[in-house]
Amino acid sequence: MIPYKHEPFTDFSLDENKEALNKGFETIKKDFGSDYPLIINGERILTDKKLESYNPAKKSEVIGNMSQAGEKEALQAMDAAKETFKEWRKSSFEFRSDVLFKAAAIVRKRKFEFTAVLVKEAGKPWKEADADTAEAIDFLEYYARQNLELKDGRKVESRPGEFNRFDYIPLGVGLVISPWNFAFAIMAGTTSAALVTGNTVLLKPSSKASVIAYKFIEVLEEAGLPKGVVNFIPGSSREIGDLLVEHKDTAFVSFTGSRDVGISIYEKAAIVQDGQVNLKRVIAEMGGKDTIVVDSSADLDLAADAIVKSAFAFSGQKCSACSRVIALSDIHDELLEKVVERTNKLTIGDPENDNYMGPVIDDASVEKIEKYLEIGKEEGELKAGGKIDNETGHFVHPTVFAGLKHDDRLMQEEIFGPVVGFAKADNFTEAVEFANDTDYGLTGAVITKNREHIEEARRDFMVGNLYFNRDCTGAIVGYHPFGGFKMSGTDSKAGGPDYLQLHMQGKTTSEML
Ligand SMILES: NC(=O)c1ccc[n+]([C@@H]2O[C@H](COP(=O)([O-])OP(=O)(O)OC[C@H]3O[C@@H](n4cnc5c(N)ncnc54)[C@H](O)[C@@H]3O)[C@@H](O)[C@H]2O)c1
Ligand SMILES: N[C@@H](CCC=O)C(=O)O
């Protein structure tokens, strides 16, 4: 087995790569408008109720019509997962890791096809879609290796005449609920972590990007995953969300999404139901309100580049996106000017044509951002953007507000769109205090040349992922374990060395010789 190394990003300045992605678009277009089934215990089930998954850059383009699981199918999937667990829990660590290695190889071979689906279904610009596919491959490769490291458990001591072991065993049926914004990477990462550790899975992907999830299940099947291990049940959260979270046989919930939904799942999972024999675990990766602090000593060109990339790549629709800048007063105006200049040069349009920014995901997102544009105008001063074009697709222009206080609403609430606000601080300690003064604690960055300030931030800036002299997005599996403090979740650190154990329980055995 070769050591883990992250998947390289594609260089789209090369003609051969451009052609390969354009070929990917041709391949996937043949399936546009198709009906997609649920997959329960390996059986394809087309339901009457279907939900359209469409291209947010071209609303008329239907990527697929996804069957929707109701209560009946959700319970059928639970039965299948429970039954399959009886055998799957006995499968070897090697077998399970091999499924992931094979799945990674299949995705790598068809990389441009998956990237094309992400451009079309999630509205991702080429580079962002490529990074999403690369991260999905990374999760498969990394968790396959991590799992093998756990196969003999951990060393414990034995006394003379005694043989002790400490092993990891699976939990049971896991409910995996994934978001649309990393529709491939997070869905594949959370699903593969749950299954490689010997659990069976109910996968409820986001309805806003479920075709990519269906295609991933096909990959798992091709890679040799036995039927019933992962049961694919897209469906309305209202109809099947609470039902499965509250189900007595759900052993754990692996959720990635917004703060409100995460909290509600956390609360509901804590209630012990009649007949329930395990306390449910919840792995929750939630929202962010991420700050870049720019110090007096900073390289302001580097700072401006980091802010623009973190705030506007994929239209700010990352939990890690920078939506707050706290700049030291003496460099604030020069930094703002540089950010506005760069922002005004960004291209926005259909991501199939490789614009820097594509659309936001849907009408609800446009409405929410529109509301915050008004709030921003009341609380501060609009410096760039502020325009919306919701005709053909859901386009929101990159927007910069200045003159804000760090505790204004625009600087406190997650917007999840291409909007960044600027506030000033008088000294570095105050800047870190302002950065910390949100309910969230996911990512952050500090741009500085001052070594003491780096160490102060390392100690005091309370976020799960803190970066120095770079952007605050783009964590790489195995290099930057990802997850946040406070209302950003349970700090479960996806893509890190402790992640798989969250899906397992430790069992001690002691044998007298
Ligand atoms: N911390 C992280 O790693 C991370 C990563 C990606 C996204 N996010 C966050 O996710 C949010 C954006 O994603 P989203 O819009 O898909 O979030 P969301 O909370 O609206 O939905 C997430 C998932 O939960 C499902 N869901 C919604 N209500 C449910 C319920 N009552 N019961 C069960 N399932 C339910 C949705 O169908 C979807 O699959 C942002 O807040 C972003 O910051 C966090
Ligand atoms: N892991 C991603 C963010 C995932 C949330 O949207 C990053 O580091 O930018």
From TrEMBL:
Residue span, Aldehyde dehydrogenase domain: 49-508
Its pathway, per UniProt, is: Amino-acid degradation; L-proline degradation into L-glutamate; L-glutamate from L-proline: step 2/2
Keyword NAD among record annotations: yes
Q: Name one GO molecular function term.
A: L-glutamate gamma-semialdehyde dehydrogenase activity
What are the record keywords, sorted?
A: NAD, Oxidoreductase
**Residues annotated as catalytic:** 285
**Is Oxidoreductase found in the keyword set?**
yes
Provide the E.C. number(s) assigned to this enzyme.
1.2.1.88
Q: What Pfam family is a match for this entry?
A: Aldedh
Q: Mind telling me which InterPro entries this protein's record contains?
A: Ald_DH/histidinol_DH, Ald_DH_C, Ald_DH_CS_CYS, Ald_DH_CS_GLU, Ald_DH_N, Aldehyde_DH_dom, Proline_metab_enzyme, RocA
* Highest taxon above the source species: Bacteria
What PROSITE patterns does this protein's entry cite? ALDEHYDE_DEHYDR_CYS (PS00070), ALDEHYDE_DEHYDR_GLU (PS00687)
Q: Which reaction does it catalyse?
A: L-glutamate 5-semialdehyde + NAD(+) + H2O = L-glutamate + NADH + 2 H(+)
The UniProt similarity line reads: Belongs to the aldehyde dehydrogenase family.
Q: What is this protein called?
A: L-glutamate gamma-semialdehyde dehydrogenase
Q: Which organism is it from?
A: Jeotgalicoccus nanhaiensis
Gene behind this protein:
pruA
